[in-house]
Amino acid sequence: MRTWNVAVVGSTGAVGTEFLKLLETREFPIKTLRLLASERSAGKSVDFHGRTYKVETLTANSFEDVDIAFFSAGGSRSKEFAPHAVAAGALVIDNSSAYRMDPSTPLVIPEINPEDIARHSGIIANPNCSTIIMLMAVAPLRKLGAIKRVVVSTYQAASGAGAQAMNELIAQTADALHDRPLVPQVFPYPIAFNLFSHNTRIDESGYNEEERKMILETRKILHDTHFRVSATCVRVPVLRAHSESINVEFSEGGRPTLEQIREVYAETPGVVVVDDRVANHFPMPIEASGTDDVLIGRLRYDDSCENAVDMFVCGDQILKGAALNGLQIAEFWMRSAQ
């Protein structure tokens, strides 16, 4: 089996740490491993497969002989350093928003549009976590009929804002339980025992950046510039794993039966139906955390619209919403490159 020289950019962050776990547990065929991060993290020791690696400072010259570079250090770092990695001959799989809407960069969920991987020009973009989790549930339903529109409300965990945000939720929870003041540092408002509109910029239409990502990225992934999505994104005091309430409206006369929907999901890799009405057991972020699959449940007809169905979905934002999806892209690319 061919082995590969791999670099992980942002290796000490929440997603970078998950990349390293997955590279080990999925037995990724690594020849050499280079861990890269900011000067603040340089020099830290990281154990991987029985060896100790030193984190190196990310520079323009960090990618000599690298075959695959996983980027999870933010958009500005990707824009600055990804071109250097490509110039050195590496395939960049970027987890930031830097290249997602670049027409020359494929935006890929391997279970949905793996064919787009082949047209890369050195960079393949990982979609936004909320988009991935939504489309893992929505895209398979296109096999059952044309979809007219999707309305989605997200319940997004602290993990979406990184390791420091997760730590802030833990610290604020302790503060709240001990009647201490809640002092936001990562988020604009207290996250413990609270929820608020997603902390991204609001545009002139009233949508925030996270909601726009879900709309525009969906259209690019599905190759449908007219696909209609309305999103409302909210931060909630959950440590890890995003949840989404999704309403899917089919074209006139096209609503499939719940049995057909279940059959499609049973044949779809990467999703699991958790829909026990008797036990009132449906997807929960606590059960989705640490799980590769996206959990789908609360499947029911929308009584207010004869062509729509409702569902509730949970997925690990750090895994399928980020690192796992990126690694799956690399695995698919490797099979074609062998």
Structural description of this entry:
The protein has a seven-stranded mixed beta sheet. The protein has 338 residues and is of the alpha/beta class. It folds into two domains: 4-127 and 322-337, NAD(P)-binding Rossmann-like Domain (Rossmann fold), CATH 3.40.50.720; 131-317, Dihydrodipicolinate Reductase, domain 2 (2-Layer Sandwich). The protein is globular. Helices cover 28% and strands 24% of the residues. A hairpin with a 2-residue loop joins strand 3 (45-48) and strand 4 (51-54).
Q: Which key terms come to mind for this protein?
A:
6-stranded parallel beta sheet; alpha/beta; 7-stranded mixed beta sheet; Dihydrodipicolinate Reductase, domain 2; 2 domains; 28% helix; Rossmann fold; 338 residues; single chain; 8 helices
Report a brief summary of the structure.
With 338 residues, the protein is of the alpha/beta class.
The residue fraction in helices comes out at: 25-40%
Task: Kindly report how far apart the N and C termini lie.
Answer: 9 Å
Order of helices and strands: EHEEEEEHEEHEHEHEEHEHEEH
Bulk shape: globular
Contiguous runs where pLDDT drops below 50 for at least 5 residues: none
